[in-house]
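Q: A reviewer asked whether we had any structural model of the full assembly, not just the individual parts. We don't, so I'm hoping you can provide one. Inputs are below.
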Amino acid sequence: MCLSIPSKVVKIDTEFNIATVDTMGVQRTAGLDLMEEGSVKIGDYVLLHIGFVMNKIDEEDAMESLRVYREILEALDEEERRALVLEDDNCPNREAP
Amino acid sequence: MTKTVTLAQGNGGAENAQLISEIFYKQFKNEILEKSEDAAIIDGGRLAFTTDSFTVSPLFFDGGDIGKLSICGTCNDLAMMGAKPTYMTCAVIVEEGFSIKELETIVASMKKELEINGANIVCGDTKVVPKGAVDKIFINTTGVGVVQKSGISSNCVSTADTIIVSNEIGKHGATIFANREGMEFSSDLKSDCTSLWPLVEKLLAEGIEITAMRDATRGGVAAVLNEWAKQSKVCIEVQEEVLPVSDTVRGICEILGFEAYNLANEGTFILAVKSTDANRAVEILKTFEAGERAAVIANVTHQYDGRVILLSAWGSKRFMDLPTGELLPRIC
Amino acid sequence: MSSLELKELYDGFRDPEVIKGFQKLIAAEAQKLPRTINIMEVCGGHTHTIMKYGLTQLLPKNINFIHGPGCPVCIMPKERIDHAYRLAMLPNVILLTLGDMIKVPGSLGTLQDARSKGADVRYVYSPMDALKVAEENPTKKIIFFAIGFETTTPMSAALIDIVIKRNIKNIFFHINHVTVPEAMELLIKGSDNDHCIDAFIGPSHVSVISGAKIYAVFPEKYHIPVVVSGFEPVDMMESIYMIVKQFNEGRSDLEVQYKRLVNFEGNTKAQALVEYYFEKVDLFKWRGIGHIPRSALKLRAEFAALDAEVIYKEFLPYEEINDHKLCICGDILRGRAKPQDCSVFGTACKPTSPLGSCMVSSEGACAAYYKYGNLI
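A: Here is a predicted structure for the entire assembly that you could use as a starting point for your response.
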């Protein structure tokens, strides 16, 4: 594997087939030779590797993953809460209601 | 030990330490030298004495130049021992053909920084060498300071101390990489190169109980913490999440595969203060622009004496080691 | 319009709460496993993630990692490094390569050693940097020592394309690109019952270029699950969860966890560029593993004018060189041993004085273990 990082496209130079991308405030240029002409647009999130754009990040899939993670956390929280309530209900030190 | 000097031996990390101890310390052995502090305490504890050479490339970078650095670097070493920078020397080796205008700019930067520290250059030396004998210009500065508070030492860090960093880390190293030829970046990143005496002066004036201080230059925060852990025979446990790193430095680190704590700083320092004074020290630092993001970053234990541990936000831990080798970008 | 922020792409996949969440899910699922399972993460970057983020500290004892050969610097045999060394020492040559490569010792030394003996060796961040070096040094021969897996090969191809189109006369190539699936297949065939590879975590960025299709053979022919994972800690935890679930459900499927960047087909334009300039080499030696058929690339014959291996043939030795006799990188790369099993790990062999490639490259298993130190 390699050091490839997500960046956002902020400018496109069609003459030299180069994109200017931003990674957390650091801007660099990257070659578009590995991407189909016209497929990369300003505002796209792309993956960079050694000076080239390798692929576009599918935002739908990324957001879907993040959404799934949130749901997992909510489900785990819910489970933990139920377990705590159950524990509390069954606590032998509790006086009978 | 290698047969010839390698670039890695100048990295401020493990190889550098080895070169110094096996070649220089071995012959120059004495009690003061072996303390390995930022500055030597001499004259019965009344004065601090230090020297540094500056070979930075490029000469002019965002946030400073070699001139500013040559004064900050040496004055900061004095400040780190609780000494007020007072007298300095300046020795310059210039390559034939160097621009006079650039030389003037560099000297003007030095003057500005001297004023901030309240110090004066009282003697110096200038050498001009044929083209190719040095890379444009090398500067050495030596400084003498009057100790305001004695006993500040890297050998005394203990479990009664809390470790604080004065500001965001890695800016200088990240800026140098970004500016260096061959790596084209454009960003608002700039070096943190700053004189630290004003901050130290205030901390001392407010009675903060400082055990140790060191500016995190070559080798970064990791180098300082490891040196303290080893010299004081303690374990330093760092909360990874609270290390203050700016977004842009983070960006450079992501791109090049570096850790911010391995990158050099020229205006950011680490302090070990008595735990009861930690919060107050952070508040005082925050009153300065150079201390805006001061934070408590670690505590001291005896879990693994001599080592530094990084605690992640999800409960795993790993060692934060001295950097080794040339700092090379990771690749596939 | 999307509301995705760039920071979310980093932080979202490193979220401590999500990591802890997957820790719980994996623990629950792993309880149902009939035995310890061995997962091979093929790729050095994944080894790096596991060690840097301490993921083994979060997993139950019945999930075991076998560190695979996925580091192009680690598997570079001494013979090829010696080629780079010899080329660098030739007069009027500037040798360029990517980062870590200059630290790997061949039998003559490292490229850093060559540099301290006067060779002009430079590391570049991108193959495209060669264009500037060539322009600034018109009387020199710039040789690009090309390394890397499928991820990096298209970038070399793109440089070759430009060199030809712009008729640049002083850039040449020494090609050492290797391909991953053939190595994975060899490791399956070679594995004895004690170290059976039960599942693969597929490389992140090889797969971006080549598509997940290249791993289809493993579930189909060998019934071994493959999950293509991103390289952030959340990605890996999710992938491990997916593998454990496959086991418990009796499946062996090819799944993609890294959906935001990997699909079945991959980057077809990049693949076409590689296909145009390169062809497979019959045999290539992978350090520590041995010769693997059709696992590496060379320039097609019609581009011989750019091929440093052809042009400088008389200076390049081809005798086999053995590894250091105490070095067990071979066993580590095959997944048969862990770094701590090596008698010289951390003593005679450490990052400052590496005996084998696993220690030199920061993506090597030994370097990762050494650096992130066994606080397990």
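A: Points you may want to mention in the reply: The mean pLDDT of chain A is 87. Residues 59-89 of chain A form the longest helix (31 residues).
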